[in-house]
Amino acid sequence: MTTIDVHSHYVPRGWPDLAAATGSAGAAGAAGSATGWPWLRAESERDATIMIGSRQFRRIRSDSWDAETRLADMDADGVDIQVVSPTPVFFSYTRPGDQALKVARIFNDLALEICAPAPDRFLPFCQVPLQDPDAACAELDRCLAAGHVGVEIGNHIGDRDLDDEGIITFLQHCAQAGVPVFVHP
Asked: 57, 124, 125, 145: which has the fewest Cβ within 10 Å?
């Protein structure tokens, strides 16, 4: 019997300054505001903290970005395959759609790098700018062509729930493409 872990997140070891990458306000560095962009404060080769502006969001370990560590943990736990999904803090649903698209592209491409060492054991899921259904569908298609096998979304975008017309459009696109959707509450 194959054991599949369907709820595993990744965080890259680093990424570009999201304020600069999106051309937006909200500095990413330690001096940034508490409402700034996420950035990673590395504390050692194995430990880091996801920061949101100047606020600590979550401490993480190297299993978030290091395939060999992740594989060793999977072996120890008897896990054969792992769905590797984005961390919801990077969804950027409160940002304009064009900014969320730029962030999605950055993290989607980094996810493929994290999963590349073990394509038979890691199943990369992408993220999309769900606040813009057309851009979300286009990014999903780009990701599927690049090697992602599914998508993770949140269960709401602001005050819009999963029954919102735009979200239904995206979900129908996923259904037509036969793409699994992981809804993160």
From this structure: 145
How far is 137 from 131, CA to CA, in rounded Å? Answer: 11
pLDDT under 70: residue ranges of the chain:
25-35
Residue tagged 């949140």 (tokens): 154
Assess contact for 173 and 166: CB atoms under 8 A.
no
pTM: 0.93
pLDDT in the model for residue 24: 87
Name the one residue in this structure whose structure tokens are 């979900």: 171
Q: What is the total residue count of the chain? A: 185
Nearest CA to 51 out of 75, 31, 68, 22 is that of 31
| Beta carbons within 8 Å of 42's beta carbon, 6+ residues apart | 13, 14, 48
Question: 25 to each of 7, 20, 105, how far by Cα in Å?
Answer: 32, 8, 19
Q: CA–CA separation, 163 vs 67, rounded Å?
A: 36
Secondary structure class of 118 (helix, strand, coil) = coil
CA angle 66-71-76, nearest 5°?
130
Enumerate residues 6+ apart whose C-beta is below 8 A from 54: 30, 31, 32, 33, 34, 36
